[in-house]
Design brief:
This protein has 517 residues and is of the alpha+beta class. It is 30% helix and 23% strand. The longest helix is centred in the last third of the chain and has 18 residues, at 458-475. Residues 86-433 form the Solute-binding protein family domain. Belongs to the bacterial solute-binding protein 5 family.
């Protein structure tokens, strides 16, 4: 059967036509020679939260966990912001014409930190573990699409799917749950694997003391020659934003994460360096559709209409960020000019009057200064149209447990991750989507997302996603607030800090970072 090769040893372009049609760029002016990286040293990092687990099969989607995961593990493929993907542990990905069979060729000669060979058997073992309900991975609905995994050679894995899936690489092979752990370490550590992880990445774990620090050291046998440059990284969870910034100014840490862009301005004024990242995603409010009042679309739409996003952005970021409007990226051709609710408190009051009952609920939010601030702004805006929201601040593990694991909430402030491919809508809004903790269900939307998922025809996908987005705008299943924003702040001596990946505005990779002495 004919197959289509999507990924080579270098990178995957969006389309062959684009690469052929693009004119040759003008010769750039000679650049100043880059400084030679210096080897060694310890990078002290202030994380915005305590990582919940370092097991890719666990609840490791927060930015604190992801920063450490990218130090300990390598991805199979590296998804880029434009939807293309680079090779990593996988050197090629080929699909059958019906997109039901995906053949992945793996990099040879790679070993896990414990000496176990990285091979097809390790990849297959991990995906079978993800598909085991006892693992309790939030990815279970996603990996259940895989009906069989074959390992015809030590460097070849074949995934067979129940139906065609055009964006399988982006949604599965490039996901954080697809970081491959050592099967030897998983078997030996059992339930403790989340604090004793073993990957193939640039650094290996040497210490995990919950609430204090996570220490990783250079992997001398790393498959990327000459990397990493750092000898050691000490990750310290510092949940309070001002404490993190003060620690950086005092020299106790060298680099920090933040979701507060105003801190980036403060840091620059103090002679530090900062990169503000506006990501593919939105800060939003998620609502539980299985209970009143949010089972009624009039209430959901009224709450959305009561939020002045321009004012919200100004109060939260001094206008640095942009309002969020819908689940697709700005300028996306899949948007379909969807009529998402704007600011209209008059119509909000009319909808609430038509609902005819008092609207009061508990709003979960992150117990940080920024989390409390955004919740208080929303509380005031909703009070202005007669809605009462009781604020319930929680630390990050508690918030994740209530919303993502137990689905025990009425409303919660949240951060939505968008994907370069609009198939991400399936995970967030399909009734079986792994991130549909709102229990939102619309059969018409389900049918459109299923059609677009299995169909590789660009025209069919475009029309399906445009129609799906219009349905979402009408249903208002969540309330979008502003684009996802964050920053990495560091000392000038920390060099070669890479830009944030599409998946996270606070996630950084330390592989090529070095310290100027």
């Amino acid at each position: 059967m004919r197959t289509q090769r999507l990924l080579g040893a270098g990178f995957c372009a969006l389309t062959l036509a684009q690469s052929l049609a693009a004119p040759a760029p003008a010769a750039p002016a000679p650049a100043a020679p880059a400084p030679t990286p210096q080897a060694g040293g310890t990078l002290n990092v202030g994380l915005y939260a305590q990582p919940a687990t370092l097991d890719p099969a666990g609840r490791s989607g927060d930015a604190g966990s992801q920063a450490v995961l990218y130090a300990v593990y390598d991805p199979l493929i590296d998804i880029q912001r434009d939807g293309s993907y680079h090779s990593a542990l996988a050197t090629s990905v080929e699909r059958s014409p019906d997109s039901r069979r995906w053949t992945v060729t793996l990099r040879q000669g790679v070993r896990f930190h414990d000496g176990t060979p990285f091979n097809a058997q390790a990849v297959a073992a991990h995906f079978k573990r993800l598909a085991d309900p006892d693992t309790r991975c939030t990815c279970l609905p996603t990996v259940q699409a895989i009906t069989a995994i074959e390992t015809p050679a030590s460097d070849t894995v074949v995934f067979r799917l129940a139906s065609g899936w055009a964006s399988f690489p982006a949604q599965v092979l490039g996901a954080s749950f697809a970081f491959i752990p050592s099967p030897t370490a998983v078997a030996a550590a059992g339930a403790d694997y989340g604090i004793r992880p073993v990957g193939t990445g640039p650094f290996k774990l040497v210490q995990f003391t919950r609430g204090d620090r996570i220490v990783v050291e250079r992997n001398a046998a790393y498959w990327r020659a000459g990397l990493p440059h750092l000898e050691r990284i000490v990750f310290r969870p510092l949940p309070d934003e001002q404490t993190r910034l003060q620690s950086l100014r005092a020299g106790d840490i060298d680099l920090m994460q933040t979701i507060n862009p105003l801190q980036a301005e403060q840091a620059r004024a103090a002679g530090l360096q900062a990169r503000i990242n506006i990501g593919l995603g939105s800060q939003m409010v998620v609502l539980d559709h299985s209970r009143a009042p949010f089972s009624d679309p009039r209430v959901r739409r009224a709450l959305a209409l009561a939020v002045n996003r321009e004012a919200f952005v100004k109060l939260m970021t001094n206008g640095i960020c942009r309002p969020g409007q819908g689940p697709l990226g700005e300028g996306s051709p899949y948007d379909g000019q969807a009529p998402w609710p704007g600011y209209d408190p008059k119509t909000a009051r009319e909808l609430l009057a038509a609902y005819g009952k008092p609207v009061a609920f508990e709003l979960l939010t992150l117990a940080s200064p920024e989390g409390r601030k955004q919740a208080e702004i929303l509380q005031r805006m909703w009070r202005a149209v007669g809605v009462q929201a009781r604020l319930a601040p929680l630390d990050l593990p508690q918030l994740i447990d209530r919303v993502l694991v137990k689905k025990n909430f009425e409303a919660a402030t949240w951060v939505a991750q968008e994907y370069p491919d609009p198939d991400g809508l399936f995970e967030g809004f399909h009734s079986r989507g792994r991130f549909n903790y709102m229990r939102y269900a619309n059969p018409q939307l389900d049918a459109l997302l299923e059609l677009a998922r299995v169909n590789a025809d660009p025209k069919v996908r475009l029309e399906s996603y445009q129609q799906a987005n219009r349905i979402l705008a009408e249903d208002a299943p969540v309330i979008f607030l502003m684009r996802k924003i964050g920053a990495i702040i560091h000392k000038p001596s920390v060099r070669n800090v890479p830009p944030a990946q599409w998946a996270g505005v606070q996630i950084f990779r330390a592989t090529e970072i070095w310290l100027q002495k």
